From TrEMBL, chain A:
Pfam families: tRNA_int_end_N2. Keywords: tRNA processing. GO terms for biological process: tRNA-type intron splice site recognition and cleavage. Residues 1-48, 66-106, 308-344, 395-437, 478-511 are annotated as: Disordered. Residues 422-437, 489-498 have a biased composition (Gly residues). Belongs to the SEN54 family. Residues 100-167 form the tRNA-splicing endonuclease subunit Sen54 N-terminal domain. Residues 499-511 have a biased composition (Basic residues). GO terms for cellular component: tRNA-intron endonuclease complex. This is tRNA-splicing endonuclease subunit Sen54 N-terminal domain-containing protein. It comes from Carpinus fangiana. InterPro entries: tRNA_splic_suSen54, tRNA_splic_suSen54_N. Residues 13-32 have a biased composition (Polar residues). Residues 334-344 have a biased composition (Basic and acidic residues).
Automatic annotation (TrEMBL), chain B:
The keyword Ribonucleoprotein does not apply. It comes from Carpinus fangiana. Belongs to the tRNA-intron endonuclease family. Residues 143-158 have a biased composition (Low complexity). Residues 12-81 form the TSEN34 N-terminal domain. It comes from the Eukaryota. It holds the Pfam family TSEN34_N. The active site is at Y253, H261, K292. Residues 237-299 form the tRNA intron endonuclease catalytic domain. Residues 118-217 are annotated as: Disordered. This is tRNA-splicing endonuclease subunit Sen34. Keywords: Lyase, tRNA processing.
Amino acid sequence: MADATEDLIRAPLNSTSASPSPLHATQNSTNNASDSDSEAGDSDTAPDYVNFLSTLNLETSTNLQHTSSALPKRGNKDFEPHPTNLQTSSLQRSRDAMTQALSHTRTHAPKVHVRGIYDDKSGLTRVGKVKGQMFRSLGRDISGGGADLYAEEALWGLERGALDVFWPKDAPKAQALDGADATDSDAYEECTGLPMSLQAAYAAYVGGPGGLTSEKYVVYAGLKRAGFVVLRAQGFHGIQRRRLLQSAEDQRFPSPGLWAWLRELIFEENQHQKTKRLAIGPLVKPGLYRNYNSIYDMLRIIPAYTPPSSTSTSHASPAPSSTRPTSTAQKQKLNNEEVPKDYETYHTSYTTTYNIYRASPTFRKSAPGAPDFRVCVISARDTSVPTLAELDSLLDEQPQDPPPPQLQPQTPSASRPDNSARGGGRGGRGAGRGRGNGIGGVYNRLKHGQRNVLLAVVDEGVVSYMRVCEAGFTEERLNERVGPPPARGGKGGGQRGGRGGRGRGRGGRGS
Amino acid sequence: MAHSSRDTVLPIPIFLSGGKHFIFSVAHASFLRAEYRIAGVLTGTLPQSPQQNVFLGLPLQLMAEEARLLVRRGVCFVVDDAAAHREGLRRLCGPDGEEERLQWLATLREMGLDAARARDAVSKSRMERALGKMETGRREQALRSLAARQQAETRQATPSEADSEDTLFPAYEQATPSPPSAPKPMSVSDDPNPLGVTPTTSHPPLPLPFPDDTATLPPAPPSYPLFAYLHSHPGSNYFSSPGLRFGCQYLVYPGDPLRFHSHFLAVGYDWDEEFDLLSLIGGGRLGTGVKKGFLIGGTEPGKAEEFAGHGDGEEGVRCFCIEWGGM
């Protein structure tokens, strides 16, 4: 480090010129393995707005869109200040460029002028006549070609210069407007009071009646800028439901059916027998065993949590659906929705805030489908590390997202016994056409998890994303990986348990 | 630049929306950056380029520590922006403010007209340049076709065509051979439709806020003394920004973050606070790994009183820098 610094001092010309300083280069190479990351990963420096302006058309500062398709680059930075005129002037140039970039005034050409009226009671914004691509994934349509926007949607539209929001002149009348009235009619004109500035929009929307916080908006805008479709999820307002304890227990331990009871009586050891075996041994009873798996099963003496897999039915977590009320009335209803009898509600930071979809030409806001990601927005300053209960309830909101098929172990298509015996050498590692085989496949599956959620941690405007997933360690039976991979129908824990049980049962009977 | 720091009137309003501190004026943001080493975080979308996350625009979000420091120094004061706007805009949109409202709408219309004229001028100059480029490529061809045209046809009257553009249009016409009829005149009227304008700040139409004596200091986290110490340390030019990206409380820069890499990852502790040795090792390792120093600091008890009231709250702070030495 000292060497690099001295180099810079000796050769200040080099350090401020366009060529990257040696320190910068090493820092990038230590920080970021891949080249593509270095852009985004070099995040301790503010980007240099000189580069940004060079990508814009500079003959006007009033009304030009970003023209080149390439993203502007961050600039090269110096290690430390030293009293050279060159450094001073390049700093001044950067600051001037930033000032110029920030001085842009948002204007709306008449053809694409989209106007909305803010409602300070509900925090919604009513757009009279939607125009442009933006509304394909924004807002809830109302009759007559208009749409209602949530706070974050309206603020985002205004911020990117695509929406002109008005403070209502006659608030009750503005609320009564529907799309038909709103189409540039006099009625609409009467209701628009004053166009809101960016500052007014922040004052109205952030912390306003719409339930939008600064953290939620920063995450929303960041994702929208990155090109994702972002919709409010059910937990946007931070209200979580909790099943009351009594009925939860009812649900978790359903009374066994007659068949289960019969099976337990004849074949399987019941809980009592198992406890006895674990306490006084022997761990593996003498008997006739057909394979090692049943023995390994008996050697499993440490109880472990098994994440609910996609095939288990006893886990009745409601799949989260997007909140897509089509009208204000419906939204109100949803907010005051009656809680089912055996649930109670409470406030928590750990709920799903947004559902995120990759941009797709076929996306329809009326039928968004299953989200690609789900994100929970938390404030770094007000929230502490989630407790197990908070994390559990957050994950309970998430749908099953098992590892994709290419991560699953590849089973030989013909699973005849003679085949599999011969294919033993192939099976272990070499046969792995997919990534699911071998020990690497295990790691990939554990990393992917059964259910996952993104945490977006926001510290005064800076966002950091984390992915939390439920790793299914108990699903990975390493003993079954040795030798030919077993033919398995699905990842069903129940199915496998049944098979193992039968094996054990025989063993027990033989003794 | 247009915004000279000498024009800035102190104290500067900081706008509180949803519990966060924002600056909406470019002049104020530049001023605080240049004069008080307060960089803040730009969180808004740049309307010129709304589909990227590298360059962001106004508003400038200030950390609570930054707001507290500025208010303590008397440079800024905090305005409850939601209440101010609710009152101000309700009044303007009510019967009392009708006159002011119409006045402001007229001003906006003027601004929109100016913007429309500027836009038209730009598109015109761009078109001329494009045609000029085309001409250099096909100068001879254009001249020939011009001559042929002048012979063959009597020109239709296109009054808005300037004389100097006459030589350009044939080339233009040839490039787009679809209609044989005369090209449509570019109508650059004197009074285009005004563009809608969304101003960045709300003053005007709202009256400028004035400092309120009853306002309290913005609350800041317990690590505030370290922040104030790093900011106010005599002889230093440190800038601080939120340290979330590197898992610390503040990233400390030796100069403007526009031009410099950060030097320290700073974490503030209470003097007697117990913390894991592991957090030292973790911070030290991370800091050393990214060529920064891991810096911890806190207020030494008893020392703060000696200097009480003379600083920004940094009295009695001592710092330690930790470097991971390998294993």
